[in-house]
Amino acid sequence: MSTGLISSSPNSPPTARLTSIVSHLSNVRPKVVICRHLGPAMPLLEDRKDIEVVLWPEDRSCERSWLLEQIKGAAGVLVFLSDRVNEELLEAAGPNLRVVSTMSVGYEHIDLPLMAQRKIRVGYTPDVLTEAVADICVMLALMAGRNDGAAYSLVKNGDWAKPKYAWSPFTFCGPQLSVTPSSPTRTVGFLGFGRIAQATLARLIPFGITHCLYTGSPSSRPDTARDAALQATHKLKALERVEADRLARESDILFVLTPGGAETYHLVDAAFLRKMKPMSVLVNTSRGSVVDSDALATALREKWIWGAGLDVVEGEPLISEDHPLVKEPQCVIVPHIGSATFQTRLDMATRAIKNLYGGLFGEEMPAELGKQ
Amino acid sequence: MSTGLISSSPNSPPTARLTSIVSHLSNVRPKVVICRHLGPAMPLLEDRKDIEVVLWPEDRSCERSWLLEQIKGAAGVLVFLSDRVNEELLEAAGPNLRVVSTMSVGYEHIDLPLMAQRKIRVGYTPDVLTEAVADICVMLALMAGRNDGAAYSLVKNGDWAKPKYAWSPFTFCGPQLSVTPSSPTRTVGFLGFGRIAQATLARLIPFGITHCLYTGSPSSRPDTARDAALQATHKLKALERVEADRLARESDILFVLTPGGAETYHLVDAAFLRKMKPMSVLVNTSRGSVVDSDALATALREKWIWGAGLDVVEGEPLISEDHPLVKEPQCVIVPHIGSATFQTRLDMATRAIKNLYGGLFGEEMPAELGKQ
Fold it and tell me: Which family does it belong to (chains A, B) (predicted)?
């Protein structure tokens, strides 16, 4: 289906390129709306003389009314998770809009069928955050095992200096992530075994991890060749795809790395947690909805497991100081900062800008939805 | 020199074994004093029928008066850093004492020349804590880079739910430990390059570390063969022994892993910190005295460096909530828990008990001071 307008046929590169050339010749630069300042990535936009940039000027999510006004006649828009891209926005934009670029891995805020119908290209930013999130997986596993919430608070509150804190041979002890001569095996488990899980596994190898178990998505088929290669690369005693039951029972450190949504809702519930080892540690850096918060709080309080490290919590960011997990000393929570490094956010912003240009000038987009 | 008493000549195994046999035959079991409950290691003592165990019954350091009373006639004593082993203690013990075993790496509480003079053997517990401390080195490097003090406190205080915390593309960002395609090199630096440093380096390799610099002790000679082998094993672009000046200037992540004492006092001072990169992170897990706390607080406040992660602070444990480093948001401090894992402390306790038995029965001690 075609709207019949040259500028809304971006999937046809020669036509789009023609549009661009026409724009140049007529000295009409395509307008792009940027819904948030992109920090150190801004020069990539500001240095371009062939586009007109309209930027939301404040350090908060852009107001809807501002966006609906500014998008009139725009050829592209760079959005975030909080900006809904729906019929209302497209109507306000008019027929010139040919690309929507979101600086996010998720795209639940974009009406994809509508985009396809209007032939508006959509870019997003997958993959670039793998390494940053794998880093925080290791950090949270160590913090949860080593009682870091309590240890950090003790110093912060000035209690290190007080007699009530006295050293003893087993004060502040927790399970050790790395192996020791007297404790020479460790099993790491992954609920979901995508890129972040594999990057996390690689980081744990020098700690002496000996066994790796994982669950795959029900719709995916086992990949025994890949698994055999990974096991050999990492010199593991075992690397196996298993059912959730065995994952829970055997993991010393268990990482939740599934996508969110209805299919994975509360996969980690009371029944799952009851099967886990008393000295095990749970880490969730994917989506809060996968873990039942009440069940986890009970598991920690009643010592079914040793500790938990969370970058995500169901219902975030509305997590108050009396949330059962926030109150739990054996739970370490950070506010969804998995991808929050300058390098990764800059890579995400850069990719979003490159997607925007690709769509704007009818060229390839580094990560285009619907084009795998 | 010999005291002329059989039981005080433990360096002569046949004689000592004779003593042991005589003890058995006469049904007089050697008495050992244990200055603190050893938790899960206690069965190693309690199951032995050939010794008489006297244990300090409380969950705090043993009282001096108790120790001086109980040690009368003892053949061995298992002590901790807080128990001074000096002439007073030896006089109270009498001539039967043939072994002092400390559950610690340090031995500054033991009068070693006096022990040599009296031919009393001394055991300690080095090496076994290498892996536990290397784990916490990685944890603190990640926490310091990723603003973990502030991130953890935000959730703990319930501020995640409040409007004053709003997501933005660079909120809570910090330098990324792992490499990214747009930031493909990382230099890790070690002030001191012993076992813990090398175990830490190994853990960082899968994060994509590309360069390693270190300073050696002035009394040690460069070991180019070892360095070349390590560089090859870890596939590093460089591994070099350098002067402190270059270490400070080039490290992205810098670990302080020297011994304490006068020779390393304030090696990390204002001049050193001023040379460091603005996005670098400092981690100290060795001795607080190596780092000038006031200079570090200034460096963090004035952003000479990005962040710091400390397991040790000069003057610990008397570190109150208004200590300049405790108040500094970019500083993460934990209360000297580097070796605090059940596995490692159990290994330390086990080694201390084995040292005790070795000395008691004139056999080999797993780690004996003065016997390298």
Answer: Belongs to the D-isomer specific 2-hydroxyacid dehydrogenase family.
Q: What pLDDT, on the 0 to 100 scale, is given for residue B59?
A: 86
pLDDT of residue B9: 40
Pairing type for strands B238-241 and B76-79 reads: unpaired
Active site residue B211: no
SS3 A201: helix
- Within 120-149 of A, beta carbons closer than 8 Å to B belong to 128, 131-132, 134-136, 138-139, 142-143, 145-149
Quick check: helix, strand or coil at residue B330? coil
Determine the pLDDT at residue A127. 85
Residue A233 contacts B where some CB pair is shorter than 8 Å: no
Residue that the structure tokens 């890949």 belong to: A226
Which residues in chain A are closer than 8 Å to B345, comparing Cβ atoms? 169-170, 173
Q: Give me the helices (H) in chain B, please.
A: 13-25, 43-46, 64-70, 87-93, 112-118, 130-145, 148-156, 195-204, 224-233, 244-250, 270-275, 293-301, 324-327, 342-360
Please name the residues between 49 and 88 in chain B that touch chain A, using a CB distance below 8 Å: 59-61, 80, 82
Residues in a beta bridge with B57:
none
- The answer to whether the peptide bond before residue A259 is cis (omega within 30 degrees of 0) is no
CB proximity A281 to B under 8 Å:
no
Domains and CATH numbers, chain B: 6-128+345-360 (3.40.50.720), 130-333 (3.40.50.720)
Over residues A288-329, the pLDDT tens digits come to 999 999 999 999 999 999 999 999 999 999 999 999 999 999
Q: Do B170 and A342 touch (CB under 8 A)?
A: yes
